[in-house]
Amino acid sequence: MTGDVFDPEQLSRCISCGFCLPACPTYAMTGDEASSPRGRITLMRALQDGSLPPDDATLAEQSSFCLGCRACEPVCPAGVEYGSLLEQWRVHQWRGWRRPPVARALMLLVEQRWLLRLSGLVRRAARGRPATPRQAGPTPGAAPAPAAGPTPGAAPAPAATAGSAAPGGPGAQLMLGCVERGLYPAVSRAAHALAPELAVPTAQGCCGALHAHNGDLAGGERLAERLGEDLPGTIVTTSGGCAAHLASVLGADRVRELSTWLAGRPTDTELRVDGRRARVALQDSCHLRNGLGVFAEPRALLRQVADYVELPSAATCCGAAGTYSLLRPKESRRILDAKLDEIEAAGVDLVVTVNPGCLRQLRTGLRRRRSAVRAVHLAELLARVQSPTPPA
Fold first, then answer.
1. Closest among 81, 92, 97 to 47, alpha carbons compared
2. What is the model's pTM?
3. 161 or 227, which is more confident?
4. Mean pLDDT for the chain?
5. Exposed/middle/buried for 97, CB within 10 Å: 0-12, 13-18, 19+?
6. DSSP letter (8 states) at residue 288
7. How far apart are CA 241 and CA 106, in angstroms?
8. Which tops the pLDDT comparison, 180 or 297?
9. Measured distance CA(264)–CA(31) in Å, rounded
10. How much is the pLDDT for 391?
């Protein structure tokens, strides 16, 4: 009997109702019960009670085949924390040499803080101290509250105003990210242009989400805690996946995704393409939407500056899923291809993301198709609207 792989209380919550099946991308792809959240929890229980041996091939396949998008969580009437169970499963399945080599290499890479800092300097990621109140505008360090009541479906606002710590205490700081710092430095520059009240320490490390999702939960928690020490006060991030991981370790009151930080800030400008108001769509970050309940805020910001078009599958995974597109490229591309068909059929000029992995996935796919649609990060689009000249 294995016995100690999963938290027994979390594992016991599933009532096998099947509400999760229609929400699961891999079940939709295969129609196989084992490839659904309910089927995988059945496998987890079999591993826990010893009905299946730890080296069973189905256990190995299904722990890897799952995207980890957590789309099953919002529809679950029993409150199953599937994302947490999957992380526990991969700690067991991917221990030692069983962890995929690509994941091992990436995890080692992002632990090199000097390399992250160097990549940020070379690629000119954002850096700098917070602006003065005059530079930052009338509401430095905090997202103004909306004039009306809360947006339906939005995440509850924190009890304290972000960035407004006690006098003399830490303020709000912009997280640069490990992947984003090297691949998409313009995102942090745009975010800092939009919120100059944020401090941007350059010596910060990785948040640990990569580790937590790839079988090293303890390592993921350790890195998140260290980042919390590096960035005291409120952490503002441009990565939905990082936001969800940090919130699970440091607490939701310490973390703000950029769209929630900017929510309610008015703008009197708009994005125009070929003399007309631009048409834009959004691809949700799975962990931001399903883990933190944040999805209304980026849509509200986009509606202020462009004609927003809701994609039918905006809330479902694009196939990036952290390292999934590298570990399971065939399945990732199947999911992406259906998404790209939908984007091109929508007649939009831009598809907007709130996560660097999604940005990479969509940009790669659209370029491969030679599509006229461009993928951009929310920060880049908003900064472009704010200023005719994008942040340097």
1. 92
2. 0.86
3. 227
4. 87
5. exposed
6. I
7. 16
8. 297
9. 42
10. 42
Residue among 223, 202, 188, 239 nearest 107 (CA): 223
Distance CA 32, CA 34 (A): 5
Give the distance between the most distant pair of CA atoms in the chain: 67
- Cβ pair 190, 380 in contact under 8 A: yes
pLDDT at residue 267 tops 80:
yes
Q: Which helix (H) or strand (E) holds 353?
A: strand 350-353
Rg, Å, the chain Cα set: 21
Contacts made by residues 12-20, CB under 8 angstroms, sequence distance 24+:
13/78, 13/79, 13/80, 13/81, 14/38, 14/41, 14/78, 14/80, 15/77, 15/78, 16/41, 16/42, 17/77, 17/78, 19/75, 19/76, 19/77, 20/72, 20/75, 20/76, 20/80, 20/82
Q: Which two tokens stand for residue 376?
A: 């951009």
Contacts (Cβ under 8 Å, ≥6 apart) of 210? 103, 106, 107, 110, 178, 220, 322, 323
Q: Which residue has the higher pLDDT, 327 or 154?
A: 327
Percent of the chain past pLDDT 90, that is, above it, reads 75
Number of H helices, E strands in the chain: 21, 9
The Cα 224–Cα 243 span in angstroms is 10
**Among 144, 138, 136, CA closest to 161:** 144
pLDDT value at position 115? 76
CB within 8 Å of 77: residues ≥ 6 apart:
15, 17, 19
Measured CA to CA in angstroms, residue 172 lies from 134, 197, 231 at distances of 17, 8, 8
The residue assigned the tokens 């730890």 is 54
Q: Name 280's bridge partners.
A: 308, 350
Beta-sheet strands, E only, within 51-114: none
238 beta partners = none
* DSSP-based three-state secondary structure for 90: helix
C-alpha–C-alpha distance, residues 132 and 347, integer Å: 42
- Cα separation, 392 vs 389, in Å, equals 8
Say how many C-beta atoms besides its own lie within 10 A of residue 121's C-beta.
13
Three-state DSSP at 229 gives helix
Q: Kindly state the tokens that stand for 362.
A: 């969509």
Helix (H, G, I), strand (E, B) or coil at 307: strand
Give the integer Cα–Cα distance in Å for 167 and 254. Answer: 17
**Closest by Cα among 80, 81, 39 to 63:** 39
Is residue 317 within 8 A of residue 337, CB to CB? The reply is: no
